[in-house]
Amino acid sequence: MKRRHHKEWWQRAVIYEIAPISFQDSNGDGNGDLPGLLRRLEYLEWLGIDAIWLTPIYRSPMLDLGYDISDFCAVDPLFGTLEDFDRLVETLHARDLRLILDFVPNHTSDKHTWFRGSRSSRKHPKSDWYIWEEPAANGGPPNNWQSRFGGSAWEWDEVREQYYYHSFLAQQPDLNWRNPAVREALRDVMRFWLRRGVDGFRVDASAVLIKDDLLRDNPPNPKADARTPPPQRLEPVFTDDRRETMDCIEEMRAVIDEFDDCVICGEVQGKTDRIGHFYGNDKPRLHLPLNFALLDTQWEPFPLQANIDAYYKALPEGAWPDWVIGGHDKRRVAGKIGQPQARILAMLLLTLKGTPFFFAGDEIGMEPVSIPPERVCDPFEKLVGGFGLNRDPERSPMPWDASALGGFTTGEPWLPLGDTSQRNVHQQMQDPKSLLSLYRELISLRRREPALTRGELRPVRSRNDIFSFARTFKGSEFLIGLNLVHEPREWEWQGAGTLLVSTHLDRKEQPLKGPTLLRADEGLIVELAS
Ligand code: NOJ
What we know:
By secondary structure, the protein is of the alpha/beta class. The chain has helices at 9-12, 34-39, 41-47, 82-94, 113-120, 180-195, 243-257, 293-296, 301-314, 333-337, 339-349, 379-383, 392-395, 425-430, 435-448, 450-453, and strands at residues 15-18, 51-54, 58-59, 71-75, 98-103, 132-133, 154-157, 162-165, 200-203, 263-266, 288-289, 322-324, 355-359, 456-459, 466-473, 476-483, 489-491, 496-502, 510-513, 516-518, 523-528. The protein has three domains: 9-107 and 180-213 and 240-442, Alpha-Beta Barrel (TIM Barrel), CATH 3.20.20; 108-176, Oligo-1,6-glucosidase, domain 2 (Alpha-Beta Complex), CATH 3.90.400.10; 452-528, Immunoglobulin-like, CATH 2.60.40.1180. It contains 16 helices and 21 strands. β18 and β19 (510-513) form a beta hairpin. The structure holds 1-deoxynojirimycin (NOJ). Residues 64-65, 67, 104, 168, 204-205, 267, 328-329 line the site of 1-deoxynojirimycin.
């Protein structure tokens, strides 16, 4: 029986997403790999994060950053071997770091033996492991469902003379989650990695596992106009977030619960008001449905306070929050809000109640890297170009130092690096006032002060362009004030306390009385005198 009053590790943790292909290359082929990642663990320890989540490292034709998997239980040679993986688990654990893997249950690669079998004949034992349908009366696709990556989600197969369904690329056929054998096989995949010591999963596309069995057509999206990417011009009512998908998530959670201390996070598309369902009620579902509210909000005090409030309000009793400020599908936020405000975001992320997630490179303020057309890799951009959907700019390799290839590789990097002399890890490690130093300082403060992890959040009314709130725990209270504009602003708090850290990193551990003048783009954490 677990002691419920103690927080789980993933409630205290800071989680760091890594796309291994962009982190550190060890063999000069231009692709990051597991031995490279192993070489950088010291950095992760120095930074102070608690867990890493890796985008897929499984065997894959790599048409979609490894989200097209041809063998769920093998490491792709691009990344190394299963022995490298075991070494990674062991080394991480020896350093008290945890490992979360991406788990992609919705689809496989068309090169997976399951699909090869399924497509070979209607009589094959795996014939109904994927979603096969007869053509419509006119010979066309069975209905109007669209692939996220453009065009019909149905692909004609000459051998079976049927269509198969793919939420993403035609080379990523969707598994048939209505088939119990498929569900069992995927639960075994989870067990395979959990037995090897992983500490949990981030479940890819967890909201789309089951599609409407009546194949009802999706309605037009009333908000769509000419600027809306074509795949988003229909509302995915009958393909996304179906009731039966929740049962699948409950089953995955049950596997997680067979093991001690493991976590299940999940990508759940959709609006904040749907997020509560993904936690479950009597039957638990995800521990951490990923919350992108900080990326979706306008960066201004009123929308920010409203979006944060809406998210907390949407959480069911006992649910643990989380906050994500970057990811391999998300435009780098520093490019949107600018470097000075990226410091404010760091302070917000690391003081809000809930598990913080950020993406490798966010801690040095990486901005979208411009990718020349001939270097585009992302299938989203290749298939639905012209709508600003390219995800390559945020996937550009990590600049470790100021050299042209950033210390990432000695070969031709799989994606171009930006201007490494402008922003790199080495330079920011040397600079005690850099964004990286701020992340490190805030992570360490969060680790020291239980109020910042376990404490309750007390909202404060935003005024004067300042977003403010307090965290309280057993008689201690921390007040956070974040100036969201590039000019000084009066922060109207009353009382006295100790200024613990300023986002400018030029004052700390000094007595402070409210009200306070916050400088342009300044955020403060103040421990109130009790
Ligand atoms: C969501 C992943 O985050 C994204 O990168 C991928 O393209 C799709 N799922 C398909 O797996």
